[in-house]
What we know:
By secondary structure, the protein is an alpha+beta fold. It is built from seven helices and ten strands. Helix 1 crosses helix 2.
Amino acid sequence: EAGVSVGIISKVHPIRSHSNAAQGGINSALAVDDSWESHAFDTVKGSDYLGDQDAIEVMCREAPDELLHLEHIGVTFHRNEKGELGTRAFGGASKARTYYVADITGQAIMHVLYEQLMKYSDSVARYEEWFCTALAMDEQGECCGVVTRNIADGSMQLFSAKSVIIATGGNGQVWKPTTNALICTGDGIAMAYRVGAKLMDMEMIQYHPTTLAGKGFLITEGARGEGAHLLNKNGERFMEKYAPNKMELASRDVVSRAEQTEINEGRGF
């Protein structure tokens, strides 16, 4: 809208980005009886007070407007009987503030955002299936573009730019098995590291607590949101021991650690 020349380079077709696999929903304090402060506190508490509280404030303050923006440009969020945007309960939240599209929330959002790319295709250039291999640096040590490989024919290409934004997702493929897609290989982190950028919070990796063991298939948090129980090999609903108030809907690191404790102590199956 400001008339800037923008190009989006993606190593896969944008709809195949890993957000496509997000099932459960997106959190926002949109309800009249909810507040961004409550959302922020849940987030800080859910991070064991390790979260960056300034970043959390920005996220929680801006979430309602972002959610409404997505709804206005066409994301078909679930609605309740009254026709209002409906929510489901999710882990670590003191209110049901997760807005969703069946079990394909990420896919629905990706498709609508891709439609917007089509709508503005005159001003936003798309380079789909171009693999970024390195950041280009000038004599002053400033980033001035990116070196890429066109996957279709293997040719190399330099894109020069006044600003480079890295938004390349996570590095779940460091682990096996993982619920992450094969494309989640931490390329952006590696490229930034190689040119001397400082990396922070490298140890902060989100674990999804529920998967099909050994296969890496994710079982959506929506299952627990709708009332699914976690049992150990003795048939005990073990979350009673670890998070009696929230049970299966404790924050993800709490549920993951509880499961690992049960497995380590021989009660997995």
